[in-house]
Amino acid sequence: MSELRSKVIQLYKHLQFLGREYPGVNGPQKFRQQVRDAFLKNKDETDPNKIKALLAQGRYVAKEVEALYSLKKYRSIKQRYSQE
Amino acid sequence: MSRILVGVKRVVDYAVKVRVNPEKTGVVTQGVKHSMNPFDEIAVEEAVKMKEKKLASEVIAVSIGPSQSQEVIRTALAMGADRGIHVEVSGKEYDLLQPIHVSKILAKLALEEKADLVILGKQAIDDDCNQTAQMTAAVLDWPQGTFCNKIEKTDAGLTITREIDGGLETIKTKVPAVLSADLRLNTPRYATLPNIMKAKKKPLKKVGASDLGVDTNPRIDIISVEDPPVRQAGAIVPDVDALVSKLKEGGHC
Q1: pLDDT of residue B1
Q2: Average pLDDT score over residue span A19-38
Q3: Rounded distance between C-alpha atoms, residue A56 and residue A63, angstroms
């Protein structure tokens, strides 16, 4: 149980860290609040299998956000340096 | 096996709108977000990937600039580089630092650290010089592979696919060599928080440009820095005849 708990905390910290650069007006605040709400919503979950599923979902979101950042960077650099 | 030297530059972040300062001596850098040059991120990623494939034994990140440049070295270390070297150049000397100085410093370090490969970003997004890799290869008298799209290890050396106008070119080079990374070489990884913490413990050496025997005296003077001209507003023409006469006026047909 405590092992899962530390994994959840790790994921939460990672998502909060990722949120610092979230695009948009007040993007970081909104994203980080959403993460907080999502974690709070499931704070009473005790079934280990459900917690594992939620962890997987959270990791998927983290991957998507990372992909979003790298795509955003790639696109703006490409736009800046290609003539077409 | 082989040692890779990667150059990283601290530049104004790509997402920041750059403004010229009122004295017209440069752009506003105070209180502006800085990060690693995106092309250098790609270079670091490629070096780390080579290390993961056991094609390299050590990745050394080098940055030249004021003390804040250590931030980008830490980022490179968090991405997987093993150690960092910070060459301190600051103040006016840094403002007027040119690729010629940088390439001499990098060449010196490549020899000193016995590097087998130097990977750099093709250009920095602040000055857009696109000269450092080429000049470093010239100073070292090593082969160069610029605008890399793909780097593969073959028995004696490297097979490189380069991005050229309207296509790709494949070349073979021996090592040691100097490579420069283009945009599509790879997708840089995101430095995670635990890795950033671990990077703080990795060794970072600080040297001065004069310790390396490189003269960083400015060779240029910045006369003035201007904003690009603002695009002029277009006009809507009522019909084809008006369009043709307008074009004739402008000397287009």
Answers
A1: 57
A2: 85
A3: 11
- Residue A76: exposure state from Cβ atoms within 10 A (0-12, 13-18, ≥19): middle
Selecting from A13, A70, A81 the residue whose C-beta is nearest the C-beta of B187 gives A70
Q: Is the pLDDT of residue B9 over 90?
A: yes
For residue B134, what pLDDT is reported? 92
Nearest CB neighbour to B183, from listed A13, A66, A78: A78
Instruction: Show residues of chain B in contact with A69, CB under 8 Å.
Output: 190
Which residue in A14, A69, A77 is closest to B192 by CB distance? Answer: A14
Strands (E) located in B45-166: 58-65, 83-88, 117-121, 144-153, 157-164
* pTM confidence score: 0.85
Distance, first Cα to last Cα, chain A: 55
Domain boundaries, chain B: 2-250
Q: Find where tokens 């005296």 sit.
A: B217
Cβ–Cβ contact A18 with B under 8 A: yes
Class of domain B2-250: alpha beta
Please list every residue in chain A whose beta carbon sits closer than 8 Å to the beta carbon of residue B192: 14, 17
Model confidence pLDDT, tens digit, residues A3-28? 788 888 888 888 888 888 888 788 88
B249 token code pair:
């006026």
ipTM: 0.81
Taking an 8 Å cut-off on Cβ atoms, the answer to whether B14 and A73 are in contact is: yes
